[in-house]
């Protein structure tokens, strides 16, 4: 094709047809420009098609992550609810008689509510979107803002639970229970690992005679009003923290479902 146009230009020049040559040259330039514009348009169309495909893949992966997130939220709610129930169980005799019932069951309950759980945050697709700058692939600005706000809220809740676990449970509650209570792991590990394919067992390392002695020591310590106040306040606070986590997670689960609906309409 290039040889063909070159031959025409050569013939026009050799025939000294300058006017026609310039007209032809201009026409050839216009043709080249049109060709470039068409090529650019095709390239842009192809890039847009590729971006749309990548956007669709991200949306699909985010939907998967959100479904996983709902499972993680529910698992955390179930754990916190178990803690709150056990706190109520430990406090029930005190609420009825103003006296704690210190026995083997109480020791098991105290051990169980000393546990804490890190809130799982499965969001690999969003992390990739942000780290690579591909968040701009999401063309729907309303949805993009919802997504960003959602994961900012997720990070806030994760930090709240992690901070409460660290500052209260690890640094205050467990030392208080170890100082005034009795640790009995008899049923705790079985309950924590329920549903796992492998069987875990962790029998109480203390024999019945030793447990009886330690329960008496704990009962004697808790007859001191200062120790009683300290112990009861920690038990009540442990229940409060669990219920706060349940409230935060329940509201966040609703947000997650609303975002999933937004994805369906994307």
UniProtKB/TrEMBL annotation:
The lineage of its organism: Bacteria, Pseudomonadati, Bacteroidota, Flavobacteriia, Flavobacteriales. It comes from the Bacteria. This is Uncharacterized protein. It comes from Winogradskyella pelagia. InterPro entries: DUF6090. It holds the Pfam family DUF6090. The chain crosses the membrane at residues 21-40. Keywords: Membrane, Transmembrane, Transmembrane helix.
């Amino acid at each position: 094709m290039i040889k063909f146009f070159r031959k025409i230009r050569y013939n026009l020049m050799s025939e000294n047809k300058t006017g026609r040559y310039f007209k032809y040259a201009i026409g050839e330039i216009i043709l080249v420009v049109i060709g470039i514009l068409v090529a650019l348009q095709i390239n842009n169309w192809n890039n847009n098609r590729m971006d749309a495909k990548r956007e669709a893949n991200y949306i699909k992966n985010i939907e998967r992550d959100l479904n996983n997130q709902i499972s993680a939220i529910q698992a955390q709610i179930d754990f916190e609810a178990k803690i709150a129930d056990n706190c109520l169980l430990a406090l029930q005799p005190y609420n009825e008689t103003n006296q704690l019932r210190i026995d083997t069951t109480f020791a098991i309950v105290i051990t169980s509510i000393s546990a804490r759980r890190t809130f799982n945050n499965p969001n690999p697709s969003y992390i990739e979107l942000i780290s690579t700058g591909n968040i701009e692939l999401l063309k729907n600005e309303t949805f993009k803002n919802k997504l960003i706000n959602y994961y900012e809220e997720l990070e806030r809740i994760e930090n709240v639970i992690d901070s409460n676990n660290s500052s209260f449970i690890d640094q205050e509650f467990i030392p208080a229970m170890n100082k005034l209570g009795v640790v009995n792991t008899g049923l705790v590990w079985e309950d924590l690992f329920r549903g796992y394919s492998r069987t875990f067992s962790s029998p109480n390392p203390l024999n019945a005679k030793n447990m009886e002695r330690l329960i008496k020591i704990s009962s004697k310590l808790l007859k001191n009003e200062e120790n009683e106040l300290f112990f009861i306040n920690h038990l009540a606070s442990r229940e409060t923290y669990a219920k706060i986590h349940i409230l935060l997670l329940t509201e966040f689960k609703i947000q997650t479902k609303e975002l999933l609906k937004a994805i369906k309409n994307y």
